[in-house]
Structures
1.
Amino acid sequence: MVTVDVASIQNRKYARWGTITIGLSAALIISIMVCLTIGAVNIPVEKIIEVLSGGGTRNERQIIINVRLSRIVLGALVGAALAVAGAAMQGVFRNPMASPYVLGVSSGAAFGASIAIVLGIGGLSGTVSVPLMAFVFCFLTLFLVYTISRTKGGYVPVETLLLAGIAVGAFFTALVSLMKYFSGDQLTAIVFWMMGGLWDAKWIQVGISLPMIVLGTAIIWLLSRDLNTLMVGEEHALHLGLNVNQIRLVILLAASLVTAAAVAFTGIIGFVGLVIPHVARLLVGPDHRILIPASILGGAIFMVWMDTLARTVLPMAELPVGIITALLGAPFFIYLIISRRRQQGW
Amino acid sequence: MTVVAVLVVASLAAAMVLLQGTGTDTDDEGTISVVDDRGKTVNFTAAPQRIVSLGSSFTEIIIALDESDRLVGVDYSGAALSGLPEGVVDLGKTSSLSMEALIGLEPDCVIIWNFAMYESLIESMEGLGLKVVAFYPKNVDSTLSTMERMGDLLGSDATELVDGMLARVNAVVAKTANLTDAQRTSVYLELASKGGQTTGNGTLSNELIYLAGGKNIFANGTGYWLANTEEVIMRNPSVIVVENSSARDLQYFKDTYGEVDAVVDDRVYRIDAGTLTTSPRLVDALEDLAYWLQPELFPELAP
C-alpha cells in the first residue's frame, strides 16, 4: 500500500516557502546596497558601508543617507504597499486585472492633490496639504464606492463594487480635468504629481507612511488563509464558514490604507500593483500565504530598481518613475496575456 | 446661342475675379505696416483702436506704452495684470478661445503668440477677416524688438520706453560682461510655475542669469526639466532663486540639499514671478538678480 505522508509534503512546502522568503529578503538587501552605489556620482560599496556605519564626509552623508537611502527606502515601502494591495484586490475580486486603483481611488487621490495644489486647501504648506488631501480623498472614494454598492441587507456584491469604482473614478477624473483647466500656473505641478515620482522623498515621509503600510500589510497577510478561501467562490466560502462580507470589507480597508499611504507621498505609480502579484504567482504559486510575502518583497525590489532607473536614465534630470513602470509594465503584461493564452491553448 | 454662351462665361469669370479681389488685402495702401515673427507683413490703414491681446507680455507692453484704453479683450494671463482699464473682456485661455466671443468684441487687431499650436487658430481668425499679428519674443533682444514693433503698430512712439530699458540693461551688462567664469556666481533656479523645473540654455531666465553676472548650474542643458537632487548637491550652487509664489523656503532646501553653499550662506532669494517674462519688467528681474549675484558690483541696486 502506498502511504501518502501529508505532513512531510506540507513540511517540504513550508520549507520551500521559508527559502523563498529568505531568498527574496536577501535579494532586497542586495538591491538596496547596489542601488545605493548608483547615482549622479557612482560611489563604491566600501564608501557606502563606511557612511552607513557613521563615517564619511558631510557631503557623502548628505547624498547617501539623506538623498539616496531615504528615497530607496520610501521606494521599497511604496513598491511593497502597492504590490500587496494589488494581490489583495486580485484575491477579493477574483479578477487578474484588479489593481490597487480598481475602485477609482487613484482618481480620487488625484483630485485631492489637485485641489491642494491649486487652492491650497488642507494645510499651511504644500508639503503637508498635498499628501494629506490625497490620503483623505483615497478613503472618501472608497467610502463612496462602498456606500453606492451596499444593498439593504448590508451585503456588498463584487460586481457592483467594480462598476461603482469605474463610475466614481470617472467622476473624479472629470473633476481633475476641471481643476487642470482652471489651474493656470499650477498645471505642471498637477501633471507631475499624477505621473508618480520619488524625487521629493524625505525621511519624514518614510516615518509617516511606515506604520500605516506595516499595519495594512500585516492585516492582509494575517488574512491569507481567508483570501485562499475566497478563491473558491463566494457561496462555497460562505459554506466553509467564512463571513465573506466582513472579510472583504476588512481586506478592502487594509488595501486602501496601504494604497493611500503610498499614493499620498508619491503620486499615482501604476502597474506595480497589477504586474508584481502576477509575477509572484508565476514563481511561487497562488497560495496567498506565500503569495503575499512574495508580492511584498518582489514589489519592494522592483520599485527600488525602477526608481534607480528614474534618477539615472536622463542626465541631470528626473523621469517620473510612474512613466517607467508603465513603459515596462504594460509590455510585460501583454507578454503575460499571450503566454497564458498559449498555455491554455487558445 | 454662342453669343449667350460667351456672355455667361464672361460674366462668371468677371464674378470670380471680383470675389477673389475682396478676400485679400495685399492691394491695400496701409499707412501702418508691421512685420510679425511669422515674417508676414500686416498692413493697417490706421492705428488699431480695438485691440485683443492674447498674451500677458503683449498686454504689459501696451500698458507700458500707455495705450491700454485701446484694449477690448485679453487672455486669462493678461486679465490678472494691474493697470488694465475697466470693461476689458477676459477671453480665458487662448487654446480654448471662443471665436464667437472674440468676434463679438469687433477687434481690428489681434496680437497673439506665434506658437506652433496656434497656427490653425491664427488661420481661422484670418479666414474670418481679422488682422492677426503674431510675436514670439524669447530673449532680451527679441523682447525689445517686439516692443518697438508694437510701438509702430499702435502708432505710438516706443523709443523712449525701449531706450530706457536698454540703458538699464547696459548699465548692468557693462559691469558683468567681462567677468570670468570663476567670478560668476553659480545659481540654481527653480520655477514653481513650471512645477518645480529648472531651466537650461535657450531660455530667458538663463540669459538673465548670465547677464546679471551669474552662471546657471544647469546651463549645459536645454529647455526645462526636473533637476536631479544629487546633481544639484554636486554642482553646489552659491545662490538659489525661486519665484515668490513658491512654497519652498530655506528650510526646505536645507532638508533636500543639505549644506550646499546657498543654504550655508543663507542666499535663497525669491523673485517676482511676473518679472521673469519677455515683457518690459525683465529689467526688474535683471536688476534683482544682479544685486543678489554680484552685490559688491551693484550696491546701488540694494532694495
Note: Residues 53 and 111 of chain B are 5 Å apart (CA to CA).
2.
Amino acid sequence: MSALSGGVRILRFTWAERMVHRATAGLMLACLLTAAILYNGSLSIRVGHRHLVELVHVYCGMALPVPMVLGLLSRAYRADLSRLNRFTRSDWHWLRPRTRRDDTIVIGKFNAGQKLNAWLSCASILVLLGTGVIMYFVGLAPLAWRTGATFVHDWFALGVGLLIIGHIYRAVRDAEARRGMRRGSVDARWAVAEHPGWAQEHVGGSAPTGPIPVEGSSSEE
Amino acid sequence: MSVTGMTSIGRASAQLCGVAGWLQKAYAGRSLVSAGRGRAHPRVVDSEQRPEGAPVGRRVILGLLGLGAVGVVSGRAIQSGVEAVLGPIEMHDPTGLIALLPAGATFRYYSVTGSVPTPNPATYQLAVSGLVDRPRAYSLAELEALPQTALTRDFHCVTGWQVLQVPWRGVRLAELIDAARPQRAATAVRFRSFDGTYTESLTLAQARRDDVIVALRMQGRPITHNHGGPVRMYVAPMYGYKSTKWLSGIELTAEVEPGYWEHRGYAVDGWIGS
C-alpha cells in the first residue's frame, strides 16, 4: 500500500460517470422542488401557476432516466454497474452497526450502502416514472389504478426524498468523496482508508503519479 | 365502492397473483445459483475481484417494481387502510408531522395563476348573465338565504387522488339558472373565476342536475380561500377540474366552450370513472 501514498491521485469516476451523476442530480432536484410545490397546500397556493409547475415536473421526471441510459455507452459506467450489482456476504456484514462490524471486511470500490443507494435510487426512479405516466396520461388506466398510482408515487417520492437527504448528509461529511465525484480523482490515502480493496487494485504495477484509469482493472471481471 | 369496486379488486388480485408467481420463478432460479456459489467461496475478501455475490441491482429493481405494481392495482384499498390508521393519530399529533405524510385523505390545492385575490365577503357578487332574460348578481347573504342543498360525496381528481365523503352545502345551480330565465339559444353554462384565468363549462342539462351546486359550505364550515371560497362550484358527478374554484360569474352561452384544463388535454365531459 505504500505505493499509494504521498499525494497520488486515483481516478475514481470518468467524465461520463460524473456527467450522469450531475444531470441526474439536477433533474432530481428540479423534480423534488416542483413536487413540494405540487403537493404542499400552502406552497401550491403561494406559487400558483399549477400548469407550468406541473410541466416542469413532468418533463424533468421523464428525462430523469435518460442520463443513466446514456451512461451505458461508457465502458467505465458499465464496469461500475457490475461492481455495484454484486452484493456479497461482507456487504451484509458492513450493514451492521459499526460497533458490531467485522474488522476483517475489505471494502471494494463501493461499500454496501453505496450499492443499495444506487439501486434504490434507480428502482425508485423507474417506479416514479411508471406511476407518473399513469397519472399524467389519464386515458391510460382506470381511475382505481390512477388512485393507486398516486398513492405509490407519493410514498416513493417520500422515500426518495429521505434517501437523497441521507446521500447528501454522507457527502457533506466527506470532502474527498465529493472531490471524487466533482473532479474524478481521489487521494490514494483516502482510497486506502475508505475503499482498501479497490485501492489495492492499483498496487502491483509501478507506482503511478497521475490518475490511474479504472477501465484496465475492471475489464478483468 | 359497490359492484364496480369489487370487480376491480378481483381483477387486481388476479393480476397480482400473476406477478407474484413470475417473481417467485425468477427468484427460485436465482437463489439456487447464488447458494451454490456461496458454498464454493465461503469467505469473500474482495467482492470486486470475481463476479460473486447476489445480483443486488436486479433484485432491488424487480422488487421495487413489483411493489409499485402491487401498489398501483391495490393502492386504493391500501390507502383507506392507511387512512384508518393514521387519521386518528393525526388528529392528536401536536407536531403536525403526520399531516405531511401522503396518507391520502388530503386535498391538493390547485391554483393556475400567480395569486388569487381574497374578496371581501360583504361586497362579493356572483353574476348570472349571458343569454338570459333576467340577469342579476347575488351577494353572499342573498345566496345564503336561498334554499340549501347538502351533498356528501367522494371528491375525485382526474389524476387519481381522492378525498372520501366530503360534505358540501349550497344552492342548486338549476335554481339560479331558472330564476334568470334562460333564452331559447342558451344550451350551455360557462363559469368564471375571479382568479382571472380559470373557466369551465357544462351543458345546460348537466348544469340542471340535482347534484350540481353553487357551494357555500364544505365540511361544515364556510369554504376557505384555499378550497376556492367564498363561493365555488361543486359538480358532484364529475372530476374536480369541473368544479370551478373562486367562482365569480355564471354565464349562459350558445355552446359549451372548453375550459382551462380542457385546452390542456382533459375531457370536456369529465364524468368520474371515465
Note: The radius of gyration of chain A is 20 Å.
3.
Amino acid sequence: MSALAFYGVLFALPVGIIAMALALAATQRSKD
Amino acid sequence: MQETLTPAAISADPYAVAAFIGYLILIVGIGVWAARFSSAGVSEFFVGGRRMHRFVVALSAVVSGRSAWLLLGVTGMAYAMGPSATWAVVGYIVAELLLFLYYAPRLRRFSGRYDCITVPDFFAVRFGDEKGGLRALLAFVILVFMVGYVAGQFVGGGKAFSAGFGMSPTQGVLLTAGIVLVYTVLGGFLAVSVTDMIQACFMIFALVLLPIIAISDLGGLHILTAQLLSLDPGLVDPFALSVGAGIGFLGIGLGSPGNPHILARYMSIDDPQQLRFSAVVGTIWNVVMSWGAVWVGLAGRAYFPDVAALPGADTESLYPLLAQQHLHPLLFGVVLASIFAAIMSTADSQLLVAASAVVRDVYEKGFHRGESLPQRRLVTLSRVVVTALVALAVGVGLMADQLVFWIVLFAWAGLGAALGPTSILALFWRRATRAGVMAGLVTGTATTIVWYFVPALKSRMYELVPAFLLALLVTWLVSRLTNPPSDTDELFDAMRRGQ
C-alpha cells in the first residue's frame, strides 16, 4: 500500500494532471 | 550526533560565475531589445499591447507565480516531510489549469473589448465604478501588497547572492534590484514576459537535471526509497499529514486567481482561443518543475539525513548545496541562475503591476479621469514610477525586513482571498454588484490577517482557505441585497464574444 501510494503520488499523479489538461483543452476546442 | 557534523558550504567557482554572468547578460539584453516596442504606449508597456504569443503567456504566467518558494521552500518541505509535500503543489497546478481554460478567456475578451489594462480597470468597467472608489480601493490593496512582495523578492535575491557568491546581503539586494530595474524600465511587459520565458527554461532544466543526477549517483530509486524508509516511514508516505494541513496545502491554489501579476499575463495574449494551448504548456511546465522540486527534497534527505549537515541547518539551502555536490561547476552556475530566475521572474511582474496601479489607476483614471493623455508621456511616467518603486522596495527591504516578512506572508493569501472570489463572481455571476465586491475585498483581506494572528485558528488551517470562502460568501450575500449594473447582459456578452 505504501509503495503504491508513494509511486502513485510521485509518478501517476503528475501524469494524470497532464492528461487532464489535455482532455479539458480538447473538450473546450470541440465546443469552439 | 549533531556535534560531530560539520555543515557543508556553498561557494561558486569561476565556471559557475561565468555561467551566471552569461545568464545576466542575456536577461539585460532582452530588456534593451524590447525597449522600442514598449515605448509605443501604456498598453504596450503594461500588457504588451495584447499581442503576446501563447507560448510566452504560458510560461510567463506560470513562473510569475512561482517565486524562490518553489526552488528553496518546496525542496525544503519535501526534505523535511517527504512526499506529503506534493500536496502543496497540486492545488495551484490544478487551479491555474482551470484559470487558463475558463477564467482567462473571459477576462481577456472583456479586457480587449473595453481596453482594460489593469485588474482594477476590469473591475471598474464591470461594475460601472464612475466615482472611482472601487478602483482606488483595488489600487491601494495591490500597491501595498506588491511593493512588499517585490521587497521580499529583493531580500531573497540578496540572501542568494550572499550564499552563492560571498557578497554582503545588502550588495545582493542592490544587485538584484539593479538587474530587474534595467530590463523592466527599458523593455516593460514584453521584456518581462520574454525574460520570464527564458527563466522558466532555466528553472525546468535545473529541476529536471538535478534530481535525476542526484538519485542516479545514489544508486537509483530503490536505494533512495530504502534509505528514506530506514530514516522514517513517514518519508515515503504521501499521506503523512493532517486533514487540516492537507486542505491548507491544496488551498494554496486559491491564491492564483487573486494575484494580479498572474492575471495580467492572461490579459496579454494575442488570441483568447490560444489559451487552450497555454493551459497545456503551462500545466506541463508547472508539473515538471514542481515534482522536480519534490524529488530534489527527497534525494537531499537521503544525502543529508540530519538537517545539521546543511549550511545554517536550513532546509532551504538544500537545493544549491545538492547542485554543487553533484553537478559540473558550469551547471551549478545554471542552478544558481535558476534561483535568481525564480526571484526575478516574480519580482519583475509584480513591479509592473504595482506601477500600472499608480500610472493607470491613480494618475490616468483617477487624477486625469476623462482626459486624453499622450501615450509617450504615460510611458515615460511609467518608467519613472517603476524606478521609484524599485527604490521604495529596496528601502523597505533593507530597513524594514520584519515589515517585508509580514507583507509577503499575507500577500499571496491576502490578494487571493480578496481578489480571487470577487473576480470569479465578477466573471461568472451576473448578479454580482459593486457593493458586494467591495465587501468581499475587505472581508478577504481582514479574515486573512485575523485568522493568522489567532493561534487556535492558525494551527487548524492555512488562512487563505477560510478567508477565500468567507469573502465568497460575503460577496454573494451583499450582492443579493443590492442591485447589479443595468448593462450586465452587454458586459457578459463581451466576456463570451470579445470584440
Note: Chain B is about 75% helix and 0% strand.
